[in-house]
Specification:
heterodimer, A: mainly alpha, Cytochrome Bc1 Complex, Chain D, domain 2, elongated, disordered N terminus, B: five-stranded antiparallel sheet, five-stranded mixed sheet, 8% helix
């Protein structure tokens, strides 16, 4: 697991959250103050804070980003290949062109199991409990990364042409 | 949006019929279609099966609530099911207990009607496999339970039929009938006939092979299973099988009318309604669409998909079959209800069934022979030009046939049909059939599709839109004697709820934005409406409570195919979503929210 200081994404997120964090600190401080006045702390023998957020238990963070994902995300060749597979593997039967049906919508920006490309890859590979099949025995990793790239693109803002340079030689070792 | 068109001559005729009934009761009785008494016995004030009786009338002879007092109707009690997906089930009432079954996870609640506020008597949690949600084509609905002889029978989305002791909720037996890994689910309400629980499967959009099975109501043992495709021995077609039309006769048509082995993944599921004629000892039901939707992958008639079967309930043996839509290419399932009535046709008494098909035609079929006596459109149709009564087959409009790579525009009705599963009612007091239905058309583009077990086997991209006039729903009162609509109520949203008629001269139905309505059974005039918590796609029922008074019940909670955009939080940016329903239903998210609440109404205590 990478430490927060070495992860620029997390620094950016932390910076955005700074004002809220300050408010929270002040709130905690005022709570502590009143608790001291009342001499009756809420939790005498346990932690006074627990994690209640996130996709992962115990406040855990997602596994580190799989660096392979960056080679597929926004890659027009991968997206085109993924789109074709999305039809051929009957993904369209449940998710249609992203609006969803039997399966959830993929273009709304709301992700049950994480919206990073490597998290989408994991959902495709492993399957999910409400009926998403597992594809890791039927498809090669390259194909699942292509699918993930297409799925990711469905909710992405319209891509700028400059950043979408195809990488014809992109391959993944199984 | 709601307008009303009444044909005045019909109204006059009804009044005259009323007068002649007074002076010449025998004559009038001969004119008015009547459900056979064996299939629609005198009303005991209960509602033990979703269709009310074997004739599937959905008619209550209770008349305490009527046109004069319905405006005073008020909520007696409400009950949250705790499940906010499409509530398609009919509340079932027996022995002063109400039974409701929820969408997945298919919880059964028994409510004690003898106590104030109808508290929970017991509940039963079958805990179906979560993955079954992912192979249910059109929301995770359940169309209800059935009560018979002290037991309650219902199906789970993950392919189990379960019998409970109705008094205690104790599980008596549980029989697994299918496998969700093949895309098979069960959503229909079982029917109990002669000690047999009749159950069919869902999954016509996943290449599931359809069947109807009979289970022993005491043990749960499977007594017979009749497939909709395959060799005659699987379809239970034997030497006594004789259909009225030539193309429905022949050996092993369930194999020969398909490309090699395509019948194995060819659909024909049975997720709708069954009627039973005790005098003829025949059950009647229709099968679903062929798979895949892309018709070019399955040349041939594709028997026995979209087919009406008459079977002996004791053995399952087919007596005759009538394929409504040979080689269907628009997803026109044949699973809609059959209402049994006896009536005079051209001076001769006939035993008939009335079936509003997805293809937009109201079929009147002889129950003994399978002959189509008439088949007339009950709304806007352009895909079928007419039904040829000599061959029994639809004459298709060549401009609306589907092809790979071509978008065929404005096919009416749309894939969900002029009417989908939501059942009609028949009132013997007005002689009218009440049909809640849709007014939707579609653009269709076929494309090749591969069969991958457990995934959709469709091969078509569909975009649904409103039909002529812009109103997406219609409520039509149909005169079976004249063979035409008497009045039609236009509704903004598609009608996905069932309906019920009462001896109080009222007809009840609900709208997808949550209005529960009572209209005058003769004129269609709106007499009362109540805004429930969510859209209504359920089936209204009426019963006599322990206090001797009439109650009307409905489940509110939007969903189903047309309501999947709300129940599944789908994205309206993609109009092809939900098998083409997303675009035309985009505004539903602004008109209602998901829910799941039972409402029971009665008159104020005087």
């Amino acid at each position: 697991m990478s430490s927060p200081c070495r992860n620029p994404d997390r620094w950016a997120a932390a910076a955005q959250l700074l004002p809220f964090a300050l408010v929270a600190v002040l709130a905690v401080a005022s709570t502590n103050a009143s608790a001291q006045q009342d001499a009756a702390p809420a939790a005498q023998h346990g932690p006074n804070e627990v994690f209640v957020t996130g996709l992962f238990p115990n406040g855990g963070t997602p596994p580190p980003k799989d660096p392979i994902g960056a080679r597929f995300e926004g890659n027009n060749l991968a997206i085109a290949a993924g789109k074709q597979l999305f039809g051929e593997m009957n993904c369209t039967g449940c998710h249609f062109n992203g609006g969803g049906g039997m399966g959830p919508a993929l273009m709304s920006g709301h992700w049950r199991y994480g919206g990073r490309i490597d998290q989408i890859y994991a959902s495709i590979a492993q399957g999910r409990p409400n009926g998403m099949p597992s594809w890791q025995d039927s498809l090669q990793p390259q194909q699942m990364w292509d699918l993930a790239a297409y799925v990711k693109s469905l909710s992405a803002p319209a891509p700028s042409s400059a950043s979408q340079i195809a990488e014809p030689g992109t391959r993944v070792k199984p | 949006m709601m307008t009303l068109a009444i044909e005045h001559s019909k109204f006059l005729r009804l009044l005259l019929t009323g007068a002649s009934l007074f002076f010449f009761p025998a004559l009038a009785a001969a004119e008015m279609p009547t459900p056979p008494a064996s299939a629609a016995p005198s009303d005991d004030g209960q509602w033990t099966m979703p269709a009310k009786d074997y004739a599937a009338t959905r008619y209550s002879s209770l008349d305490e609530i009527n046109g004069a007092n319905v405006s005073h109707l008020q909520v007696a009690f409400a009950f949250s099911t705790g499940v906010d997906h499409g509530q398609e089930a009919a509340p079932i009432v027996a022995n002063h207990t109400m039974f409701i079954v929820t969408p997945y996870p298919n919880i059964v609640f028994a409510l004690d009607l003898t106590k104030p506020g109808a508290p929970i008597k017991w509940s039963y949690h079958p805990r179906p496999a979560a993955a079954s949600q992912g192979v249910a084509c059109c929301d995770v609905v359940n169309r209800g339970a059935t009560y018979s002889d002290g037991k309650l029978f219902f199906n789970t989305l993950d392919d189990n039929t379960i019998a409970l002791d109705a008094e205690t909720g104790k599980e008596l037996w549980k029989t697994k009938l299918g496998d969700i890994n093949t895309g098979e689910t069960i959503t229909m309400a079982p029917l109990v006939v002669k000690g047999k629980v009749l159950v069919g499967d869902s999954g016509g959009e996943l290449g599931v092979r359809g069947w109807l099975a009979a289970l022993d109501d005491t043990t749960g043992k499977i007594l017979w299973r009749a497939y909709a495709t395959g060799p005659d021995k699987d379809v239970l077609i034997g030497p006594r099988f004789r259909s009225f039309y030539a193309s429905d006769n022949g050996s092993d048509l369930g194999v020969k009318t398909w490309p090699t082995d395509a019948w194995k993944t060819g659909g024909g599921t049975m997720w709708g309604w069954i009627a039973y004629d005790p005098d003829l000892n025949l059950i009647y039901y229709g099968t679903g669409n062929p798979g895949p939707w892309n018709q070019e992958q399955r040349p041939g008639d594709n028997k026995w998909t979209t087919t009406l079967f008459a079977r002996d309930p004791d053995t399952g043996a087919a007596k005759w079959a009538l394929q409504y839509n040979p080689h269907d290419e628009h997803d026109y399932d044949g699973i809609n209800e059959q209402i049994l009535v006896d009536m005079t046709v051209d001076g001769n008494p006939r035993r008939v069934l009335l079936h509003p098909d997805r293809n937009g035609h109201l079929y009147m079929v002889d129950r003994e022979s399978g002959e189509i006596i008439s088949a007339k459109p009950y709304g806007h149709v352009n895909s079928v030009l007419r039904i040829d009564l000599k061959t029994g087959r639809p004459v298709m409009n060549p401009d609306k046939l589907t092809k790979i790579g071509t978008v065929v525009h404005d096919i009416c009705p749309t894939a969900s049909g002029l009417k989908d599963w939501n059942p009609s009612a028949y009132s013997p007091s007005t002689g009218l059939m009440y049909i809640p239905h849709e007014n939707l058309c579609m653009d269709w583009k076929s494309k090749p599709v591969s069969y991958i077990a457990g995934t959709p086997f469709v091969g078509a991209e569909v975009v649904t839109k409103a039909g002529p006039g812009g109103n997406r729903g219609e409520f039509t009162a149909w005169d079976p004697v004249e063979g035409k609509a008497v009045w039609t109520i236009k509704e903004d949203l598609p009608l996905w709820s069932g309906t019920m008629a009462t001896a109080g001269g009222l007809v009840f139905y609900g709208t997808m934005d949550g209005w529960f309505k009572a209209v005058d059974a003769k004129t269609g005039e709106l007499k009362w409406q109540f805004r429930t918590g969510s859209g209504i796609i359920g089936q209204p029922v009426a019963y006599r409570g322990p206090d001797g008074h009439e109650y009307v019940a409905i489940l509110s909670g939007v969903g189903g195919w047309a309501g999947a955009i709300v129940a599944g939080d789908l994205d309206p940016q993609d109009p092809t979503g939900a098998l083409g329903m997303n675009g035309v239903m985009a505004d539903l998210k602004t008109k209602t929210a998901a829910g799941g609440t039972l409402y029971v109404f009665t008159l104020p205590k005087s």
